[in-house]
Every structure is written in C-alpha cells, then in structure tokens.
Amino acid sequence: MTSAPAQAVLDTFPRLLLHHAQVRGDRPAVREKDLGIWQTWTWRDVAAEVRALACGLAAQGFKRGMHLAVIGDNRPRLYWSMIAAQALGGVPVPMYQDAPAAEFVFVLNDSEIAYAIVEDQEQVDKVIEATPQVPTLAHVYYDDPRGLRNYERVLSFEALQEIGREFDRANPGFYDAEVAKGSVDDVSVMLYTSGTTGKPKGVCQTHHAFIESARGAAQFDHLTADDSILSYLPMAWVGDHLFSFAQALFVGFTINCPESGDTVMTDLREIGPTYYFAPPRVFENLLTQVMIRMEDASALKRWMFHYHMGVAKRCGAEILDGKPVALLDRLRYAIGNLIVYGPLRNVLGMSRIRVAYTAGAAIGPDLFRFYRSIGINLKQLYGSTETCAYVCLQPDGQIKFDSVGKPAPGVEVRIAGNGEVMVRGPMLLKEYYKRPDATAESIDAEGYFHTGDAGIFDDDGHLKIIDRAKDVGKLVNGAMYAPNYLENKLKFFPHIKEAVAFGDRRDMVCAFINIDIGSVGNWAERRGIAYSGYTDLAAKTEVYQLIKECVEQVNAELATEGPLADSQVHRFLILHKELDPDDDELTRTRKVRRGFVADKYAVLIDALYGGKAVQHIETLVRFEDGRTGMVAADLRIEDADTSPKSTIAKAA
Amino acid sequence: MSAPKTESVRKIGDTILKLENISLAFGGVKALTDISFDVREHEIRAIIGPNGAGKSSMLNVINGVYHPQQGTITFHGDVRHNMRPHDAASQGIARTFQNIALFKSMSVLDNIMTGRTLKMKANFIEQALWIGRARREEFAQRAKVEQVIDFLEIQHIRKTPVGRLPYGLQKRVELARALAAEPTLLLLDEPMAGMNVEEKQDMCRFILDVNEQYGTTIVLIEHDMGVVMDISDRVVVLDYGKKIGDGTPAEVRGNKAVIDAYLGVAH
After folding, report:
1. In 3D, which of A34, A256, A50 has the Cα closest to residue B147?
2. In this structure, are A480 and A464 located in the same domain?
3. In terms of residue numbers, what domain contains A576?
C-alpha cells in the first residue's frame, strides 16, 4: 500500500521531512557505510540534523532566495544541506563533483553562490581555486575534516550545526516559522544541464514539479516507505535528485549512501535495495564483469550458465511479463532460477529488486533482455533535467526493448511536425535561470516543452526515441542519417566503449571507435596478445579485425532497416586515446560532444574521407591533476564491408 | 577562506633519534662508515643516495635488524645496543619494505590487523575460542584498522587477498599495516618505487597527511628526487656508505659532492 502523504500542506520538501519525522520517526531515513559499518539515521534524526544545519546557515546570514552550492559524492550531510537550504527558502545548487575548478567557476558565478557546502579537501581546494573569479563566494563548509585543519575561514559541518543549535535555542520559533513560509511554487532546486550544447543552463524546478513527479512515479510503481535505494549517482544529476531526494522524501523510503565510489558493487550487495536506478553504462559494466568471470569458471559451471541463459533468453522475459509460456520451459526456468539466476541476482546485489530503471542513454536490446530474463524487473524511462526526469515510464508487463514506455501520469506528450517530442505537465521547469531567451525558446505558447529529441509513437502508444532532433541529418543522396542510433548500435558490443559517426551531408558514413579496455584487454590476454596500454592495444591488427567484425554486423542489421540502410559504416578507425570529459570530448554525463570531437580530430576525418590508409596524429591530453601531455600515434584506417539493402524487415 | 598557510601546525620538535658514528660491515664489505645524523620529532627526513649507497642498511640499523659494529643509537633519550626488531616495534617504530612484505593470500583487512598484534593481550585459549578479551579486543582493534582504511582510501579492497592487488595498492596496504601500529617513528623504504606518476602523487599526499594529522615522524628512502625535494624537511645523502651531505632540500641540491655522486664526475 502506498503510504504517501496526501494532505495539501505537505507541499514542500522541508514539510515532508517534518511529516515523516512525526509519522515514522523511528524508521531509517538514511544509511551510510562509514568505517566499515552501516550507520543509520532515522527520520527523527534527520529532521534534527537538518534543523541544526538550517539554523546554522541562518545564523551565518543565509537568507530566503539565496543559492547554496552542494558539491561532493552522495553523502547524507549533503542531502541534508539541500533540505536545510529549502527550509530557509533558499535554493540548493548541486554541482558535479568531478568537474575541475575551472568548470566550477561558470556555475558558481551564474548562480551567484555565496554559500557552499562541500564534501572534503579535494572540493574545498577546487572551490578555493575558483574563488578569485567568483567574488560572491564567502562561506565554505566541509563535511570531511581530513587534511583541512590548517585552512583558514572554512568551517566544518559540525561547527556550523553547533552554531545552529545555539541559534535555535536563542530563537526557538525561527525554524518552524521559516518552514511555514515556504510555498509550493518556490524554486526547490537548480540543476545545471550538462552543456552538451554550449554553456550549461540552470534549470529552476519548483517543489510542485518534483513533488508531482514523485507522486506520479510512486503511484505508477507502488512505492512504499519500506522500499530502499542505493544513492550513488551524481547528486547534480536530475535522476538522482528525483529518486534519492524527491521520491525518498515524498514516499518516506530509505536511501543508502555507499562507502566510496569504488565500493558501490559491494555496498549494493550488502544493502540489497528494492528499488534501483542506473544508467545503461552501469548495467553494461556489471554484465561484462559477469561474463569475464564466467569465462574463467570451470567447464561444468560454464555449461550450466550457458544452458540456462539460453532458457532464460527464450522465455525469461515472457515469464516476468506474465505472458503464456510452455509448461516445459517454465519448469526449465524454475530449475535455472534455483541454480543460476537466483545466485546471479544475489551476486549482482539485485535479489530484492522490485523495480529497476535505466535512462540517460539507449540500452542495448541484448543487455536489457539479459536483466529481464534473469527475473530483474528492469524498465526504461524517459525524461530530462527540464522535466524532472519524468515523461515516459514503461508499465509493468508491457515492456518493449526499443521504446521508453507510455506517458507518465499527468504528462501530455505530442510529436511535432519535424518529429520533435514535445511535453506538457506539472513536472516542467519554471525557467532557465537568468535566461528568459532560452526559456521562451524551449516552451511554446501552449505550454509545451520542446525536448529536442526526435521520436515516434508506435501502435500501442509507446514512445520511441530515435535521436536528437538536431542531429538527424541527411546523406548526400538524401537518405536519413541518425548518428546516435548508429553509434548506439556499435556501442551495444561489449568491445566498443564509444563510437562517433560522421555522415551528415557526406556521401558515406565513417566512424571513430573507442575500444573498451576491460573487455578487449581480457580478450587479448586470452589470445596471448601482449600490449602495454590503451594506445598500443588499440593499434593491434587483431583488435582491428575484431572491431571490423562488429562494424560489419551492424552494417548487416542496418541493411534490413529500410531508410537507415544507407547509414552503413564504410570506413572506421580506432582512436589512440579514450574520449574523456577532462579533454572536453565528453560531457560530465559522458555524452560525446560531436562538434568538438569533429574539430579536434578534423585531420582524421579528412583521412577517412580522403581514402588514406594511415594518418599520423598528435593529441593533447589532460591528466586528472590538471597537467597536460601529448599522445602521438599513427592510426590505421580500415574499410568495412557493407551489406546489400534488404527488403526483409527483421522482427524486432 | 584562503589557501592553506605555508606554515603547518606541526612543530618540528627536539631530536628523538640520534645516530652517532655508525659503522656497519659485512665481513670485508663496509656498508656504512662513520655516519652520524639525527631525526627530530614530527619531521620528514629523507635518506637518498645512488644504488648501493647503504640507505636500506641505514634503515635496518635504525630498526634493529642489523647491529652496527661501532657507534651509538639514541632513541627518545635511551642509548641502545643490539636492539631487536621486536623491541623497535614496541617502542613505536614501524616500517615498510622495499620489496613488499605482506601476507599474499590474506585479505587486506587481515594484513592490516597484523599491524595491531602488539596491542592485543588476549592469550591463546581466548583467541582460539574467541571469548573474553579476544572478542573485545578484536572489536576495538578492528575499529582502529577501519580508521586507517578510511585514511588511506582502500575501502574497496578491504576483503581482497593482497596477492591479487596491483603493486601500487600493495604498497599502500603495507603503509596501512605500518600505520595500524600507531607508530611515533615511521620508516619507509622506497614507498614510491615502481609507481606511475598518479600513484606517486597519491602516495606523497598520504605521507604528508600522516605526518600532518598524526604528527608521525617519518624517515624515508626514495629515489625520485622530485618527490624527496618536495616533501622532506631535511635530507641526508649517502654514497658508498659515507655521508656526503645533510641539510634542507635546497642545501642538498646545491651541494657539490651530491651533484658529483649523482651525475658522476670525470677522474
């Protein structure tokens, strides 16, 4: 049963927190693994922590309408900082914690940050580095004191709370009065877009938008206060804000913060969440690990695994969807569940998962089917920062591998003439911060938000996203060219980590490939191919042959897909370095910056289209500590065989 | 707010370790000849020198593994002769090794727990049955070990057998085990040998943090001059078992004998 609150007064997150502290004060709200032990805070604890923190901020001069930067990994205290800011009528601005100081400057300035709560010394250092360019920034607080003893004028989280408790004693009615002042239409959070195109924009979302999105999702998936989720995705990402913040506070379920970024897998297994959210990349890595480990297993185990995976592939997803399946297959699946799928789910930390979502990028059909076939209710959703990550959801039992589901409760979706997906509903952004031009451009007179994605509805009313509307181009012969669609097909191979396709206004399609060092490295070791590192491995003839097979397989698939048959990859090369956000080639959410890559590697594109077989290139790389170095290589360019157009449409 | 002050709160204190006229020979091979230097409380003291200069021998002398034929060692005011490594450990000296000396098939956690052995008082029966003191102690010691794990950021490999870890991480585990003993004097034998740039930077950070946060006095041997000059307070230079330089990094860098020893000199 859904225990979500219904009263009209519970219309801001600080009020929701007070509500939970009353009705389920002793239930766990937040867990964090610290010093090897899971520490728990109940809803009552959290309410007290937030109160002390909010009062501390108030005593330090934080006022209604101000912005609070929140930077760091998923830490309970950083989540509390966001509620504390909201309680005072301020707006939290979570920022990507792995961005270098130079990237902080823009957001800190754009949102006129005066107060920041950050995780540790690393973040403090970066904020300090940015300070000369951010005149407004005056107050910095940190969570983890390590290495910060000698810093002047930065204050610890504890000290801030101590100030707050004193302030609270002196002004007993202050906090409740501040919470009471909050309005449902206040901006509750500002999330910056990843900046795939141009400078990041601050998306202002109200309490109303996120609460309505949480309410819809909670109804849709029957979330209850007994659910539990692992919070490990960047706090600045809308997905984490919806799942770990808005939904958790609306429904009252428990969030679990991992010990560190490297322990997520172990922590997942220890917690066994019932509700899970991860981008396709994570699911892909998990599967790759499982497959690598299975390759190393004994012959008997390998046989058991492959036999039962075959059974699961045939009927697992259908059983999960409640569709009719032959009795014999059901029996086989039941045995498989006992000896393979169950243990596998346990190893993945997914034994208790009721609902799992993936979003943010296209997920490979094989990958998607794998998880569903072993009994994990993995579904896709569609949304963006501007829509609280809440537009379409796949209903239980109606899962299609290539769609993102049906419009969520309360959301209207319409396809524009040019194929662009347009949405309307309570989850829409209030505005882009200080960018009325961008706001006017993206929301039309009827209140529809232009997502910039190209999509189509299928016969059952499921939305299918093809590409970014602006990326859909044409080849010289007029055939449609959807680069993302093509790249995703390539990336579905475990050996290919990243692909960048070119073809708009050209006579054929060519591609850059990044190999997956884990997967290809393992493949090479198995064959006794020695290599020293990424650059060396990427240049091996055998690796080129391996990738060529993948490309040709994609070509064969494309040949059957009517209008996309002309998008087959004619020539490709394997890049000598991995595309990296530190080199501005990827966004922080790891999407390829197509234009930037095209400019940076223009010489390689010329070589692809100029028919050259080898091209020398030198590239500047930036290390994590900000220093730079050069990588040089002679890149081979390979031709791939294309398949003749076929009129036989392949069954999806 | 502002950048960290250049001056640290840690105050370099009095001399805690004094080596006077140390000579060590293995048969006819003179490993160390008449070497004297001191180590002050809370400082980072580097020992550098070309291969075979006697650096590791020096560390082994401090640690009580080798017994010099001549000279005196004064630690915390006590002159010691023929000290054994066991005594060194109980007096608060911990070390890491040039060639990693961990228990390869034991987990990281268990390896670090061995660093706490001296703090455990439970007897064999209690240990075997895990009752009484053994149980209480394990909880207390584990808590300490977890702090070290947190400090060195190795949570993700807590349960991994050491043998499966890459070299750089093994080095970090070894440092963790030494730290678990809560030493007052930490001896590091080439903590950064064989590491890549990033691992070296991490290790530097950890060494400085240890020194800063726990006030641990550190004596380290290192080949990477950049590292040595960056993090040490004072440097002693050995060549062919003799001391040829002693002073701050800047002084040592300008020392003619040191330059000759490192770059070679025409005869």
Report:
1. A34
2. no
3. 473-639
pLDDT in tens, A293-333: 888 889 999 999 999 999 998 898 888 888 888 999 999 99
Asked casually if ipTM beats, i.e. exceeds, 0.85, the reply is: no
Would you say residue A171 has pLDDT above 70?
yes
Chain A residues in contact with B159 (beta carbon < 8 A): 266
- Name which of B257, B196, B192 is nearest B225 in CA terms: B192
**pLDDT tens-digit series, residues A562-605:** 567 788 999 999 998 888 888 888 887 778 888 899 999 999 99
Distance CA B59, CA B63 (A): 6
Q: Categorize the per-residue pLDDT at B267 as very low, low, confident or very high, splitting at 50, 70 and 90.
A: low
Q: Flag whether A445 is in a domain.
A: yes
Asked whether the beta carbons of residue B147 and residue A35 sit closer than 8 angstroms, the reply is yes
**CA–CA distance, A415 with A127 (Å, rounded to integer):** 43
Nearest CA to A152 out of A130, A112, A124 is that of A124
Whole-Å CA distances, B252 to A50, A249, B53:
54, 61, 16
Q: How far apart are the first and last CA of chain A?
A: 36
Interface test with B, best of A32, A113, A141, A149 (most B CBs within 10 A): A149
Q: Which residues of B touch A127 (CB under 8 A)?
A: 1
Q: How far is CA A436 from the centre of its chain?
A: 27
Contact A36/B201, CB-based, under 8 Å? no
Distance CA A123, CA A136 (A): 18
pLDDT higher than threshold 50 for residue A2? no
d(C-alpha A114, C-alpha B137), whole Å: 48
CA distance A527 to A203: 50
Task: Give the residue numbers in A contacting B (CB under 8 Å), as ranges.
Answer: 34-37, 124, 127-128, 131, 140, 146-147, 149-154, 259-260, 262-263, 266, 623-625
Put simply, the answer to whether A140 touches B1 (Cβ < 8 Å) is yes
Give the distance from residue A375's alpha carbon to the nearest chain B alpha carbon, in angstroms.
28
**A154/B149 Cβ within 8 A:** no
Closest chain A residue to the Cα of B149, Cα to Cα: A35
Q: Is the separation of the CB atoms in A520 and A543 below 8 Å?
A: yes
Q: Mark yes or no for CB contact A151/B4 under 8 Å.
A: yes
What's the whole-model pTM score?
A: 0.79
Contacts of A128 in chain B (CB under 8 A): 1-3
Instruction: Please report, for chain B, the start and end positions of each structural domain, with discontinuous segments joined by +.
Output: 13-92+183-267, 101-181
Helix/strand/coil for B127: helix
Cα–Cα distance for residue pair A235/A244, rounded to 1 Å: 9
Nearest chain B CA: its distance from A290 CA (Å):
18
**Pick among 3.40.50.300, 3.30.460.10, 2.20.25.90, 3.40.50.2300: CATH of B13-92+183-267:** 3.40.50.300
Domain boundary among the residues A203, A237, A254 is at: A254
One-letter amino acid of A582: D
List strand residue ranges (DSSP E) for A13-62, in order. 28-34, 37-42
Three-state DSSP at A505 gives coil
